[in-house]
Automatic annotation (TrEMBL):
Organism in which the protein naturally occurs: Podarcis lilfordi (Lilford's wall lizard)
PROSITE patterns: BTB
BTB domain boundaries: 38-105
Record-linked PANTHER family: KELCH-LIKE PROTEIN 32 (PTHR45632:SF3), LD33804P (PTHR45632)
Coiled coil location: none
Keywords: Kelch repeat, Repeat
Name of the protein this chain belongs to: 6 isoform X1
Amino acid sequence: MMNSPWDKDDDIVGEEHKSLNQYIREGLNHLLQEQLLCDTTIVAKGERFPCHRMLLAAINPYFRAMFSSSFRESKDGEVLLQDMEPSIVQAVVNYYYTEEIALVPEMAQDLFVAASRLQILPLLESCSRYLLEHISPENCLSLYQLGFAHSDPDLLQEAKILVNLHFKRLSIEDKTFPNLNPSTLISIISLDSLVVSSELTVYRAVWRWVMAQSASRLPFLGQLLTHVRLPLLTQEELRVVQSELMCYRDVRLRWKRFNRQERLQRSGGLRRGMYSTCIICVDLFNMEGPELKTKDFQVGCFDPQAETWEKMPLLKCLYCARCVAVGDKLYVTGGVHTDDSYSDTMHEYSPLRGRWTQLPSMSVARASHGFLACNQQLFAMGGWCKYEDYLDTAECFDLERKFWAPIKRMPFALSHFASAALRNKLYLVGGVTDTVGSWYASRKVLIYEVSFDTWSQVYLDNECYWSGAVAMNNGIYVIGGYFRSRTRHNERWSETGNLRCTRKCFFLGEDGQVDRRVTIPRLPIELAGAGVVRWKHRIYVLGGENTYMYNNLEGENEEEYYNTVYYWELGATKWVQCQERLPFTSWGLSGFGCTTMKVPKKPILELFRKTSVALTAIEVVNP
């Protein structure tokens, strides 16, 4: 039986039509397999790979320039790639014809180098993505060298993170380290972010690299050691270095007696591993006792890693002050003195000096205000300066030029708000104001854009004040506080009030809107006025209070204060209570200043707190 013409048409309609690109690629691959019309040959270590110069030239500028010029390869039809392995060249040729590549760890780095050299950008991007997905402490040093040599910023950045963390082990154990080229080695030992507790680790790494091929590398020693921070070596470490170097007559040591400031300037700063990031609490005191003026106000330093507290030098007796840290410097502004006067002062604390220094004062006295750091500037915003006198003024302090300047006034007077800085914006969440003639809690987020000196406002679902806030994960985490839901925007807070202390926490996106996709577990207890800070990937909550009505007829409040310390790890399902509590207080405390700061470790502090001789340079003479 003969098929109907319609059957034939149905077959034609059912076929999947190929694109012109598919026809060209399949045709070129067929020509390669059959060795037809091949007009050039790539040669790698004696192995020959026939191919078509038109295809090579069409894909990248490397071969285009080669075949369109008077180079030898254009005339005799052979391209020599003798420093590449034949297996790599074979993979590259296959990629040209099929756009397929089988990346495996054994070949990925060599293919990355080949793609970079031959300027095959799609292949280079594929190799880079593969290497990023497979980066580890075991291969980070070789990938750092690749990213550095081939200007791949993503690969370099990810490898740098691991090199920083594992530098000591890598410099001793990794087989790649002795084979680093000098420029790559210099780029590594120049990093501030190396996690080394002693500069002796960096010196020994350089020494091992030089001794691996001492005959050819000794001339590099002087140059390399200019990037080692020799003034950071302790007296014991200096003796080790001196005894090692004195064996070489071609090496000359230079010494100088340094004070603290000279040592810091000459060294170029501390490495990341030379300090600990700690939580600083300003004006901790014991609330028990008859009079506040008799209290001993303390500055406490909490190391979350060890869960230990240490005392720092006293500042002065005041409460409701605010503090912020920039690097290893702590700044404290405002507050209320024990005689009920308000402070406009600012003090700076440097752990390397071990003392407080008074800086220029703010334009007005403030307490319970916002105090944030952004772009080497400090911002003091709002607060109050006497009972029920709220402030709408704000000002910034330039850390380099050391002076205060006013910024645009806030949309309304505000105090007792949560605050955080994120990407050149300052966020003030909730707070207390009196713009309608009596106290009420705000249900707004005020956002100040540093670059444009402008304020904007976003509404919250609830009135709130005395919360805490930290910036993390591209947004603002708001923790605890006093809350009340309202349907109207300007509901007054009555004298009896019905704001309740809460366990609630929520997340604000960069636009200031609540993002309910981000979940935060409720606090273990209701609290407000706590010290809330970010430490690494954790949020810590220290102390706090809970004021609640215990007699509705008489309208009296009962206050409960806490000395507990809790933390929440990003992604965890609950808060964890630390064994350590707030020091210097057996009852509890709220409203104190709290921030995180880089605190140099004890050997570094001891080094900087005395004048001593330091090694400043090592010269190689007539190597």
